[in-house]
């Protein structure tokens, strides 16, 4: 089969993909609700934070694409492709000022365009521990309205698996750091299929072929084209340098360079257009390569000549009849009405409970499949417990063991909290998926934070119980079953607090280095102000009132110290020289309450201190939620 035949049949690796045969669900179809997407005179300006100078990154960009068409936004790096795509999709622009007129059916939409569209990012994040089928299934459960039955959702999932050639990989995981999954090209197809599950009217793709070879790029884009044609969708994609075969899949091209338009129109008209303005395209040349070389001035030896050529191309476009026609608004199309949206349900109100349950299910699958989430931490904490149990092995209840007991409690409290930084990569991955899903209107920060909190509780309890079983009995802390369970409880609260701290810091700075640095710094402060290094009564008032009373480690340390010393006596040794003056001195014993006095502690309500610790944990989670809201 020749290349032309492969293009006509939708050839993909030796198989023919008949998407229309699988598109039985009519809710996929656009049904001409969105007949066109157009934009006029789009401009974007960014201001440098240091020099305070403004720089235009888009200037007077116009274009139009109708249902069933696929448009490629092309141009050299830095030309404004992704910025334009984000403007059209109404994605957050950050520090960029945007002036634009984006019309649906040539009229201002009464609905947010994000309710009509889906956006696939360049490095579209996926949950690596899920299988391909589970990824699409969770996308369906999160995006489709509650009226859809499980059978209807699964039918849609299976149709998309067939349409994108993923049926054989349906039960293969996406891939984690320790488990190999599907290929990069297949991941791109999964990303697109997951966005199509909610039947958007418009699909935005940011560099969907980045990192793929020419054959994989052709396969991905041919699947997208076939689905768009079969279901009358609008597809707008930024793409850098497609092969000839991939280029011929597009109906229209918008060529940008230096933030200005070089050409907008049918892909087949590229050669005659540039021939007509004095830049003939040689025969048997990839149009994408030709346009990129023509409009890229970054590597020009003669910068002045390159700039003059680019200005001439911009001028030729601005004076062309095609550019003038783009500013004319046809009146034969009807405006979009309220309710003409994709098959999603807003993530508020009654949806929070069902969405939280779905996210909890997804997180649960990830938690036990991906060893980096809790498996690695379980091994690390167990190793720490064995280390502590063997270093502080079988301490006798004597005066000489009082300081080692205290040191063991401090070491366990501080390092078990500090080791929670291992959770940073897993949460950052979850956060990246959350940002993508939130931008596509699937769920908000409330459901995400609640599900993230709940999924960790059983794992952290198992870690606390297993590690405590080694530490407590090997070290020879107070031999009492109730005391052991109190020890487990405080260690459990310590782990939950440490994970909540990671969530807070990672929500404020959702990158590995930033979150790791902040969490480590906070743990250092908590350790210094927990009442061991400096007794509470002697602690600097600033640190006492600013850090001690909000320090979950301080309450955990105090709880464990009271659990050991508050109800136990220690022998003074053979010479009966007691370092602590307690009521048991005449019996050659030391009452543990004397040790508590040294730290400035007294035995008070256990429930009160547990309640305060749980309150600190709740506040950290609420602050994490607020950070996610703030970063919108």
UniProtKB/TrEMBL annotation:
GO terms for molecular function: ABC-type transporter activity; ATP binding; ATP hydrolysis activity. The chain crosses the membrane at residues 371-393, 405-428, 448-472, 484-506, 512-534, 610-628. SUPFAM superfamilies: P-loop containing nucleoside triphosphate hydrolases. It is found in: Membrane. Signal peptide: none annotated. Keywords: ATP-binding, Membrane, Nucleotide-binding, Transmembrane, Transmembrane helix, Transport. One of its GO terms (cellular component) is membrane. It comes from the Eukaryota. InterPro entries: AAA+_ATPase, ABC2_TM, ABC_transporter-like_ATP-bd, ABCG_dom, P-loop_NTPase, Plant_ABCG. Gene3D superfamilies: P-loop containing nucleotide triphosphate hydrolases (3.40.50.300). Residues 37-283 form the ABC transporter domain. The keyword Membrane applies. Pfam families: ABC2_membrane, ABC2_membrane_7, ABC_tran. It is a multi-pass membrane protein. The keyword ATP-binding applies. Belongs to the ABC transporter superfamily. ABCG family. Eye pigment precursor importer (TC 3.A.1.204) subfamily. This is ABC transporter domain-containing protein. It comes from Oidiodendron maius (strain Zn).
């Amino acid at each position: 089969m020749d290349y032309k035949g492969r293009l006509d049949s939708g050839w993909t690796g030796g198989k023919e993909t008949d998407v229309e045969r699988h598109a039985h669900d009519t809710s996929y179809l656009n049904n001409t609700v969105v007949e066109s997407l157009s934009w006029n005179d789009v401009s974007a300006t960014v201001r440098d934070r240091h020099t305070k100078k403004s720089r235009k990154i888009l200037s007077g960009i116009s274009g139009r694409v109708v249902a069933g068409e696929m448009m490629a936004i092309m141009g050299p790096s830095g030309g404004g492709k992704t910025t334009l795509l984000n403007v059209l999709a109404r994605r957050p622009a950050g520090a960029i000022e945007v002036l634009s007129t984006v019309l649906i059916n040539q009229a201002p939409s009464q609905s947010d365009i994000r309710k009509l569209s889906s956006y696939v990012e360049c490095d579209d994040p996926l949950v690596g521990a899920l299988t391909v089928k589970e990824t699409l299934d969770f996308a369906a459960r999160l995006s489709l309205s509650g009226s859809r039955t499980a059978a209807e959702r699964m039918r849609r999932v299976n149709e998309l698996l067939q349409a994108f050639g993923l049926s054989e990989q349906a039960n293969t995981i996406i891939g984690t750091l320790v488990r190999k999954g599907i290929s990069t090209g297949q991941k791109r197809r999964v990303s697109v299929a997951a966005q199509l599950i909610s039947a958007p009217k418009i699909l935005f793709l940011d560099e969907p072929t980045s990192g793929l070879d020419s054959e994989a790029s052709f396969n991905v884009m041919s699947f997208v084209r076939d689905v768009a044609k079969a279901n009358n969708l609008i597809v707008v994609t930024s793409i850098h340098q497609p092969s000839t075969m991939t280029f011929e899949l597009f109906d229209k091209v918008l060529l940008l360079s230096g933030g200005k338009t070089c050409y907008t129109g049918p892909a087949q008209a590229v050669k005659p257009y540039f021939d007509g303005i004095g830049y003939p395209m040689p025969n048997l040349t990839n149009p994408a390569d030709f346009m990129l070389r023509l409009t890229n001035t970054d590597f020009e030896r003669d910068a002045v000549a390159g700039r003059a050529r680019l200005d001439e191309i911009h001028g030729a476009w601005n004076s062309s009849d095609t550019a003038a026609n783009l500013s004319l608004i046809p009146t034969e199309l009807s405006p979009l009405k309220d309710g003409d949206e994709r098959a999603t349900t807003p993530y508020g109100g009654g949806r929070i409970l069902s969405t939280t349950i779905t996210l909890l299910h997804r997180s649960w699958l990830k938690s036990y499949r991906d060893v980096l989430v809790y498996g690695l931490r379980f091994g690390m904490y167990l190793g720490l417990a064995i280390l502590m149990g063997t270093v502080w092995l079988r301490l006798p209840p004597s005066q000489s063991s009082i300081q080692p007991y205290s040191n063991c409690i401090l070491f366990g409290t501080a390092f078990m909290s500090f080791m929670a930084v291992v959770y940073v990569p897993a949460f950052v991955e979850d956060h990246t998926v959350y940002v993508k899903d939130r931008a596509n209107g699937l769920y908000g920060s409330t459901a995400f934070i609640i599900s993230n909190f709940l999924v960790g509780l059983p794992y952290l309890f198992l870690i606390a119980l297993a590690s405590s079983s080694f530490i407590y009995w090997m070290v020879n802390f107070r031999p009492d079953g109730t005391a052991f369970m109190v020890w487990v409880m405080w260690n459990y609260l310590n782990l939950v607090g440490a994970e909540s701290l990671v969530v807070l810091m990672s929500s404020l700075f959702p990158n590995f280095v930033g979150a790791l640095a902040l969490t480590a710094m906070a743990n250092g402060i908590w350790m210094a102000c927990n009442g061991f290094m400096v007794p509470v009564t002697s602690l600097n008032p600033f640190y006492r009132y600013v850090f001690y009373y909000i320090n979950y480690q301080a309450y955990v340390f105090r709880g464990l110290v009271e659990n050991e010393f508050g109800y136990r006596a220690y022998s003074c040794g053979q010479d009966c020289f007691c370092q602590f003056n307690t009521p048991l001195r005449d019996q050659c014993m030391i009452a543990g309450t004397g040790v508590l006095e040294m730290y400035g502690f007294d035995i008070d309500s256990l429930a009160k201190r547990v309640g305060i610790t749980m309150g600190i944990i709740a506040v950290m989670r609420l602050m994490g939620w607020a950070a996610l809201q703030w970063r919108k």
